Write the structure tokens for this entry.
Amino acid sequence: MATAEVVVANGSGGADTKAAFKEIYRKLKEEMLEDPAFEFTDESLQWIDRMVDYNVLGGKCNRGLSVIDSYKILKGVDVLSKEETFLACTLGWCIEWLQAYFLVLDDIMDNSQTRRGQPCWFRVPQVGLIAVNDGIILRNHISRILQRHFKGKPYYVDLIDLFNEVEFKTASGQLLDLITTHEGEKDLTKYNLTVHRRIVQYKTAYYSFYLPVACALLLAGENLDNFGDVKNILVEMGTYFQVQDDYLDCFGDPEFIGKIGTDIEDYKCSWLVVQALERADENQKSILFENYGKSDPACVAKVKDLYKELKLEEVFHEYERESYNKLIADIEAQPSTAVQTVLKSFLHKIYKRDK
């Protein structure tokens, strides 16, 4: 699914928050290596130690840090107690562990080469398809961490349900992406806005945008059933984020965004190709059908020229404006000003981003 790195930390956490966050990672990893449920050998301990560092670390930790930032806003404080900080950081790391689990398996399914500037875990010598089991272990670490630190809390069952539901939604979104993008013959007629939206919402928006805020709400003693609107707003925000990502893949500056876009070559169900299909005449459609999904630079150039001819940059900027205005209106309709602040801080972090 080639999940985008998400830029969602509210204040991206101050230096102190980041230092505390990193410190708690070490403690959680230590606990996983000392779990009494399994008799580890020296070799298996070394493997897990290296595997967890390789896959859980290395990202920007935006999802995890945004749990802490959101919790502070919901509580109306600048500084959390030691216990509150520990619990918020622990839930943040559970999200980072979840991300690692998704990415390890995702890279195998996509046959990717690199992730976060280093070889994908399964590409590392001696790892190969052991990475499948490593993904399963990473997922199980989340359950172990939640049980150790949250069992006995009134919201423990809600946390378990939340992680299970978000994982199910993400895996189902990944399935939709895989069978739409990779199954058999390439068929652009399968691509439309409804399909694109469904893939994006389930594959990315729930775990990247809703999950961190839902964790913060549970920590603050709230009942998630009362925050259906908040869930919908965050999923909309996640959709907007992915549309930006699709746009930047084609029109962003590779020097600036740090990666060269390959959505056209990879036959992705991108927002741009969906918009092009909606707007193209028969002649323009035939150009798309002939050139989309081919790695030949001449074919890619023809697709990009068509996007420009169809004025998709203007279409995107109009979409961005409309999305922002609707999100702001929906956020300002929320009864809690603290919730409004959390949502606005997410939105302002990503609005008009250029990488």
Remarks:
- The radius of gyration is 21 Å.
- Residues 82-109 form the longest helix (28 residues).
- The mean pLDDT is 92.
- The chain is about 70% helix and 0% strand.
